[in-house]
Amino acid sequence: SVLLSVLSLHSCTLDEYNPGAFTKEALATSIDGYETLINQCYFAMERFYYGAADWMSLTEGDTDLWTYKANESTSYTQWFWFFAGTSPNTTYTNNWWNGTYDGVGACNEAIALGDKPPYTTEEERNAKIAEARFLRAVYYFNAVEQFGAVTMLTEPITAETLTYSPTRTDPMTIYQEVILPDLRFASEWLPTGTHATTTTPTKKAALGFLAKACLQTYEYGSTEYLQEALDTAKKLITDCETGGGKYNTYMYPSYSEVFKESNNWENKEALWKHRWYAGTDGHGSSNGNYKLNRNDEYFLCDINKFGAREDNQETRLTWEGSISGIFMPTQHLLNLYVQNDGTLDPRFHQSFTTQWKANKSYTWDESAVHMYDKDETVIGKTLKKGDPAIKFIMPQDADYSTEKQNEHKTDYLLIDHNHVYSDRNNNVNMNYSYTNVTGNYKNDGTSENLFRYYYPSLNKHNSSNYYVANASKQRNGNLNATFIMRMAEVYLIAAEADIYLNGGANAAKYLNKVRERAGANPLTGGMTVRNVLDERGRELCGEYCRFYDLKRTGMFKSSDYLKDTHPDLARFFNPNYALRPISTTFTATIINGSEYQNPGY
Fold first, then answer.
1. By the 8 A CB rule, do 567 and 427 touch?
2. 129-151 confidence digits (pLDDT tens)
3. What is the pLDDT of residue 288?
4. Sorting pLDDT into bands at 50, 70 and 90, what band is 425?
5. In angstroms, what CA-CA distances link 273 with 201, 416, 481?
6. Is the pLDDT of residue 432 over 90?
7. What is the SS3 assignment for 426?
8. Checking CA distances to 359, which of 193, 221, 315, 402 falls within 20 to 30 Å?
């Protein structure tokens, strides 16, 4: 059942509370009953966080790395455009806000009743309590980073403590009194687990999040926890580099192995990963039929706009057959992969799909030839199923010059990076100047750029592991696990903390460990926070980090950084938007709703 919370008044009344409390207290007197309460702590995490529709946009959207597909600024404005200068949407965070406090409420119940079940050892009891405390820390970590000061609840709500005028607690207090103590407790008492452990957090997950949370406090002008961030990261790094005997940490020898589907469910590099199951998962909560992990759908460009591609039954249950995504990489993100010697960081072609094959027979007609600026000799050329259909080329690709010479004559759709992106101003080219001028297509740069619909598509979340409720209506979901945090990030946390504490004396060592594994050129010279931020973009794009990275490093304090990296987004920047709006669906239910809302909304 959904627990009563002071911040989910829409679903509860005072009369409903007391019977539920007695039920839960009675339930907690058996081990099976208590673990049912622990399972409730995961419900909101599954429904509203990792793998859910909104969460990728809340953590990766409105940043320097992504724009909406085709760079269109009239859709999904809350996710990608800081509302595009229009009146802010103040209800889009509603489900996530309510889910967060349902999760917090479940954790508080489990923690408060931890002395009831008849465990035989302190280790067993504390290990279960540590699950609830870890999850509560994750809920609050995300809550303060999305909303700033929020209401801090650490005990179950009773009729006596219920209030319609909740107060907000500043983020540092919540870090000091809840997030960091919970993670320290969890790092002490959670089990080590194995590589097969998923969803249930283990000791390395708690240590990883403790390092992450300690580092994030720097955002609030605090240096108090930076040494703990570095020391905790070094514990994991030492364990990883000496065989993982203490915490079971691991890094794959090559970057390509990290996201290999065969390594998904038992991924060794993941510090914490979440699995999905058809029907009912291992924690006893329903997945809502087909509402499973949708991460694989968010990043695919609309390849079916080209005639050699179609969304058919045969390909629907693959990444290429999924719904076209909403995340288009910015020019800045692509630039991050260009190394100083002009070559591409190997992670680019391992992280992004740039070529697709035909999945139907197709013959170029005159209309398509003119639309895609082909020479008329292409009219009548045919592609068979399985032939190359679409290819995006980067100027740094070894065969770029050869491909470029034939761009107007190839029988496949050739997309030049320079057609889609502008090196002059870090923008997407919305217009195109046709070479083979005919009809409505002009060579003066005023025609719509039809090439911008095709772009490198992040493939980290690709899946062929689907649960099917109704394939024809695309009522299906990806059952693959998502990695909420992995070992490579720990090295980047250590590098950033070292810069703040030691001027970066050891930062290059940590950064180059990640780059060496990727086959990228080593960084040399003194390291700066910008070096770390750029490396985090290359290594962790699409992994729930970027919005928090920009906040922590001060890039949302003014529009200067975005003017340089994502000028289209900078046009709509407002420092208030570093915090999301608290849903007016909620604020309308409390007495002090107007003062409870974040500034600027």
1. yes
2. 999 999 999 999 999 999 999 99
3. 52
4. confident
5. 8, 36, 6
6. yes
7. coil
8. 402
| DSSP labels, 173-214 | HHIIIIIHHHHHHHHHHS----TT--SS--HHHHHHHHHHHH
258 near 252, Cβ under 8 Å? yes
Distance in angstroms (rounded) separating the CA atoms of residues 93 and 161: 25
- Where do we find the tokens 């108090």? 224
The whole-angstrom separation of Cα 465 and Cα 97 is 30
Instruction: Count Cα neighbours of 289 within 13 Å in the Cβ-side half-sphere.
Output: 6
How are beta strands 362-363 and 382-383 bridged, if at all? antiparallel
DSSP 49-73: STTSTTHHHHHHSSSSSEEEGGG-S
- 329's enclosing H/E stretch is strand 327-329
At 53 the pLDDT is 67
Neighbours of 516 (CB within 10 A): 11
Task: Determine the angle formed by the axes of helices 487-502 and 507-518, rounding to 10 degrees.
Answer: 150
The predicted model gives 304-327 an average pLDDT of 87
pLDDT number for residue 17: 45
Q: Which residues contact 398 (CB under 8 A, 6 or more apart)?
A: none
Cα–Cα distances (Å) from 294 to 197, 200, 467, 475, 573, in that order, read 21, 20, 11, 11, 28
Task: Label residue 581 exposed, middle or buried (CB < 10 Å: 0-12, 13-18, 19+).
Answer: buried
* Eight-class DSSP state of 260: -
pLDDT at 242 exceeding the cut of 50: yes
For the ranges 179-183, 290-294, 311-315, 424-428, the maximum mean pLDDT occurs at: 179-183
pLDDT level of residue 22 (50, 70, 90 thresholds): low
Contact 204, 249 (CB under 8 A): yes
Q: pLDDT tens digits for 51-82?
A: 776 899 999 999 999 999 999 999 999 999 99
DSSP secondary structure letters along 226-241 = HHHHHHHHHHHHHHHH
Residue 291 has pLDDT above 70, yes or no: no
Which residue reads 């695309």 in tokens? 474
Determine the 3-state secondary structure of 369 from DSSP: helix
Closest Cα to residue 68, out of 301, 294, 293, 297? 301
Determine the Cα–Cα distance for residues 296 and 571; give it in Å rounded to an integer. 30
Q: What is the pLDDT of residue 499?
A: 98
CA distance 172 to 219: 10
